[in-house]
Structure formats: structure tokens, C-alpha cells
Q: What sequence folds into this?
């Protein structure tokens, strides 16, 4: 096994563990935005679409590059916007007659 | 060790050779992006910081894209057509994604997440095919074992996610029947697809580098995604979406192995882990194993098992006025919203009634079962949209001790998650965590009919002495009760 592959596998495993650790503390209240936010993060595939697209020099390559960038851009832009829209509502305080502090601690 | 690690961060753009200045900077920027993703997710621990977390994560994404653009320009191997193709693709995708994100109704969030998930998995699969085509057809290189394994895994996971997520979105949107779709020969077809995928994968791993073999794998995986999700019922779609989200993360991580980019590996692994945890949490809240959901079979023929000895006991019917009196003169009311509320899009009416009661000095809070709505935490989003402060939303563990001191529990569109039968053995929902609604002094249930919930059994809550049933659509029923309360107290 090459050092490069070993490094990549190490990074992969450690990132999985970090993911488990970070996510397991999120309260149920935020599970939908969390799923949407993590959905946006895998939109990082756009970087891969750009890297492979830049190397395309054939018709097939161009078609695949077009599809990959369109898909990935939709994932990343839509994912972050819709998550932001949801979380914005969580921030909003009700208009009338409440004395709750905006940080959510009663 | 460190230099090797860093070299591989951007080996994709440098072709594996030593890093230039630009390459080093790009590699470091990817690292910053990865840190932004991790910290961003960490900030989602609290509603107060969650939005900032998502914005930090988005900033990391913008950095990564900008760095990649800089590297592509510096590299100089991209053609004019390449720019045009990629630019137009990205523009179309971005505009479409943005418009959908802006316009979507909050009740339709699950299908939108599923759609974005589909295209993410699709992009990961297409990217692997694209890389494969360039290496074998254009550069005439033979693939290394690493390339073969990661390409096959990326393509299989990505393609299954793509078609599976589209089917899941279609089911939630109502374009495809939400009931389990089964057909004769499904098992044989799945075995055949598995064999085809295995055969294609074996041919690739044997070093044939055959595009035909890769296409066989892609097609088998695409069809398998469809046959995997079709037989699963609509109520299980949230678990499926969560699982597919996890799959996409893994597909993206595999894409990172294909093009040797640790930014993709880190982000993909993070999402893979988060999706796995959410899937597990959801399945636990539904008292089912993930395997059981994917293989289906719940509620098919065993519905007789759950009849309680006293099922068919008398029910108490309430009018809107009865319900209004009970609510208006209560001191403490807990509202239990469920799937039916989401389906009727009645969250605003619910909020209006809650406000009205609070105006009368009633203490109102909302008890949310982890799987209420169409996705874990979906009900919280719907109530947040209706301006209910998240401090009034109580999770199950918080709400259950409150019920014995509650005057009225108002159940709107929730069924199985309130069924006390879950506490007994030998029912289909035995052991499922439920909200202890029956322990409140009085229970008001707004429901369209005595129809069964997803588990297909009678809800023993409905025949208890302290339960009153108000038969109405959630939206109309809540509005009627609110009007009756207003008439009663004269506002």
C-alpha cells in the first residue's frame, strides 16, 4: 500500500469519527436542518466536478463535465440556501407578548 | 509523513507530482474549508448558533471552490470549451437549486433534501465515470488498484443514491404511490442486478479497464436504487432519505479517493457519519431496525396482532365548543402535533390557537416526538415557520414528566406515537417510545376519522374515559376550536 493511499484512508477514518462525535450531540429539534446542512456539505463534490471537468478534452468528457457541474452546483447552492432559510426561522422571535431571550435559554 | 499528507491534498490538481506554490496554498485552503465544515456542524448543537454554523460551512465551501478555480487557471490545461461547459452547467444548476430552495413550502422540505441528495450522489458517480474515461480513453493509462476500487465503489453508491433518492422524493411528493410497490420477480431482479454489478466490478478489478463493464455497473446500480426504494412505504421515507444522505457522503468520499482530493474525503466522511447517526436515531424512535425498514414487511398482514382487549370501547365525541371550554379553562395545555398536522399544513392555525390560549393565561407548550412530521425534526421546522419559539418545543424526554400535571393534552394528527399499547408486550408497536399523553387529566384528539395510523392498529388512547375525540380535518378543526374559544371568552 502506498503512503498516499494510507494517508487518505487515515484521513477518511478520522473524519468519520469526527463526524460521529460532532453530530451525536445535536438535539432532535435541529435534526431536519442538520440533515439539510450535511446534505449541502457533500456538495463539495463540486470541487471534484471542477477538477475532472478541467481535464476534459473530448465530447464525452465535456458532456460528463456539464452534467457533473450542474448536479453539484444545484446540490451545493440549493442545500445551503434552504438550510439557511430554515435556520432563519428558528432565530425569529415571536412578535407579541413574550419575554424570552433570543439565545434560546428560557 | 506531514509532507506526504499535504502533497496528497492537492495531488489531483498537480498530477501527484511535488507541489508548486499555488498547489501548496490550495492544499492549505482545502484544510481550512474542512475545518469550517467540522466547526459549522459543531455549531448546529444549539438553535442559537446553528445559522452561524451553516454560514461558516458555506464560507468554507466558497473558499474551496475559489481555490480550485485558481488552481485550474494556474494549471492552464482547461480548454475554452471546458470553461463554457462547466460554467454553463454550474450556472444552470446553481440557479435551479436557488429557486427551488427559495420557493419550497416547509412541508415539502423532505422531498427537496432528497432531490439535492440525488444530484449530489449523481455528481459523484458522473465524476468517477468522467475520470475513468479520461484516464483510459484519452490518456491510455491503466488504472491502479486504488483507482479501480474507489471508482467502482463511487459509481455504485452514487448511482444507487441518485435513482433511490429520486424515487424517495417522488413518493413524498405524491408522484409515485406512497404505499409499498412490489411486483412478482422483484427478488429475482435484485439478485440479477447484484450479479451484474458484481460481474462488472470483477471485470474492472481484474484490470480490463473496460468502459462497457463500468457502464454495466452504473446501470445495475441505477436500477437497484429504484427497486430498493419502491417497496418501502411512504412513512418510512424519512429513514430512507437519511440513509441515502449518508450514502452520498460516502460516494463523495470515494470520489475523493478517485481524484485524490482529501477535501472531498473529509467532507464526504463527515456527511456519511452524520447520516448514519441520524438514520439510527430515527429507526430507534420508530422502534425498528434499519434492516427491517429497508427489507420492508412492516404492517403487512400482522395488523390483527395489536387489538387491545377493550378495543371497540366507547368513544367520547366532542364538539368544537366542548373542546374550547376545556382548553380555555385549563391552566396547562400541552399540544402534541404529528404527521397529520404536516399533511394538512395546519401549523399556522395551531400557532393561532396556542397564542389565543396563552392570551387567556393558559401555559402552552408543544411536545414533539422525534419522528413527528415527515423527517426527524421536521415538526420543529414547521412550528418555527409558524413563529412558535423553540423554547416552547419540548422533546419527548422533557415532555413526558409534564403530562401528569397537565390539564389538557391536545393531540393534532398524531396517532401511533401516543398509543399506550406500546407499553404492553405483544403489539406491533411494543417498546416504541411514546408520548405519555394518556397521563394528562384530559385528552382532546383532533382526527379526521377513527382510521388507523401507520402501524395499522387501534389506538387505545381514543377509547379512554378521559379522552374526547373531535372529528375534523386538522386545519379546519383548529380554526373551529379557535373561533369557539374566541366566542367563549369574548375577544
A:
Amino acid at each position: 500500500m502506498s503512503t498516499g493511499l494510507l494517508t487518505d484512508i487515515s484521513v477518511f477514518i478520522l473524519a468519520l469519527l469526527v463526524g460521529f462525535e460532532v453530530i451525536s450531540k445535536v438535539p432532535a429539534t435541529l435534526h431536519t436542518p442538520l440533515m439539510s446542512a450535511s446534505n449541502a456539505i457533500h456538495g463539495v463534490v463540486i470541487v471534484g466536478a471542477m477538477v475532472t471537468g478541467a481535464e476534459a478534452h473530448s465530447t464525452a468528457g465535456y458532456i460528463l463535465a456539464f452534467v457533473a457541474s450542474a448536479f453539484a452546483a444545484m446540490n451545493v447552492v440549493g442545500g445551503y440556501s434552504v438550510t439557511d432559510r430554515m435556520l432563519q426561522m428558528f432565530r425569529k422571535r415571536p412578535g407579541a407578548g413574550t419575554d424570552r431571550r433570543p439565545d434560546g435559554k428560557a | 509523513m506531514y509532507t506526504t499528507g499535504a502533497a496528497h491534498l492537492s495531488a489531483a490538481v498537480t498530477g501527484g507530482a511535488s507541489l508548486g506554490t499555488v498547489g501548496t496554498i490550495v492544499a492549505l485552503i482545502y484544510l481550512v474549508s474542512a475545518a469550517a465544515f467540522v466547526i459549522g456542524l459543531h455549531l448546529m448543537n444549539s438553535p442559537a448558533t446553528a445559522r452561524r454554523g451553516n454560514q461558516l460551512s458555506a464560507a468554507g465551501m466558497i473558499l474551496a471552490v475559489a481555490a480550485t478555480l485558481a488552481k485550474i487557471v494556474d494549471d492552464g490545461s482547461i480548454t475554452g470549451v471546458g470553461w463554457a461547459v462547466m460554467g454553463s452547467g454550474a450556472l444552470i444548476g446553481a440557479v435551479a437549486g436557488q429557486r427551488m430552495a427559495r420557493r419550497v413550502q416547509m412541508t415539502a422540505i423532505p422531498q427537496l433534501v432528497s432531490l439535492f441528495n440525488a444530484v449530489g450522489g449523481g455528481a459523484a458517480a458522473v465524476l468517477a465515470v468522467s475520470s475513468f474515461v479520461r484516464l483510459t480513453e484519452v490518456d491510455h493509462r491503466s488504472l491502479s488498484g486504488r483507482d479501480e476500487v474507489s471508482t467502482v465503489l463511487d459509481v455504485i453508491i452514487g448511482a444507487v443514491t441518485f435513482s433511490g433518492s429520486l424515487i424517495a422524493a417522488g413518493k413524498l411528493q405524491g408522484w409515485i404511490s406512497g404505499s409499498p410497490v412490489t411486483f412478482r420477480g422483484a427478488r429475482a431482479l435484485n439478485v440479477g442486478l447484484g450479479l451484474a454489478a458484481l460481474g462488472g466490478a470483477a471485470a474492472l478489478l481484474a484490470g480490463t479497464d473496460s468502459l462497457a463493464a463500468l457502464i454495466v455497473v452504473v446501470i445495475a446500480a441505477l436500477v437497484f436504487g429504484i427497486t430498493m426504494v419502491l417497496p418501502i412505504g411512504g412513512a418510512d421515507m424519512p429513514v430512507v432519505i437519511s440513509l441515502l444522505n449518508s450514502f452520498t457522503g460516502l460516494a463523495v468520499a470515494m470520489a475523493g479517493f478517485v481524484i485524490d482530493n482529501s477535501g472531498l474525503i473529509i467532507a464526504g466522511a463527515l456527511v456519511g457519519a452524520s447520516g448514519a447517526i441520524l438514520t439510527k436515531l430515527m429507526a430507534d424512535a420508530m422502534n425498528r431496525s434499519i434492516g427491517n425498514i429497508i427489507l420492508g414487511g412492516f404492517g403487512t398482514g400482522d395488523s390483527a396482532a395489536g387489538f387491545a382487549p377493550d378495543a371497540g370501547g366507547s368513544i367520547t365525541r366532542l364538539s368544537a365548543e366542548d373542546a374550547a371550554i376545556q382548553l380555555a379553562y385549563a391552566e396547562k395545555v400541552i399540544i402534541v402535533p404529528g404527521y397529520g398536522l404536516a399533511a394538512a399544513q395546519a401549523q399556522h392555525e395551531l400557532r393561532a390557537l396556542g397564542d389565543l390560549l396563552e392570551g387567556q393565561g393558559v401555559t402552552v407548550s408543544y411536545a414533539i416526538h422525534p419522528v413527528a412530521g415527515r423527517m426527524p425534526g421536521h415538526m420543529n421546522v414547521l412550528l418555527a415557520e409558524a413563529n412558535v419559539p423553540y423554547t416552547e418545543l419540548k422533546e419527548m424526554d422533557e415532555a413526558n414528566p409534564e403530562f401528569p400535571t397537565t390539564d389538557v393534552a391536545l393531540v393534532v394528527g398524531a396517532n401511533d406515537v401516543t398509543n399506550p399499547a406500546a407499553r404492553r408486550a405483544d403489539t406491533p408497536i411494543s417498546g416504541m417510545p411514546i408520548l405519555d399523553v394518556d397521563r394528562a387529566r384530559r385528552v382532546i384528539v383532533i382526527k379526521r376519522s377513527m382510521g388507523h395510523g401507520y402501524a395499522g392498529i387501534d389506538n387505545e388512547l381514543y377509547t379512554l374515559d378521559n379522552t374526547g375525540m373531535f372529528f375534523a380535518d386538522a386545519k379546519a378543526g383548529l380554526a373551529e376550536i379557535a373561533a369557539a374559544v374566541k366566542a367563549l371568552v369574548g375577544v
Observations:
- Residues 1-103 of chain B form one domain.
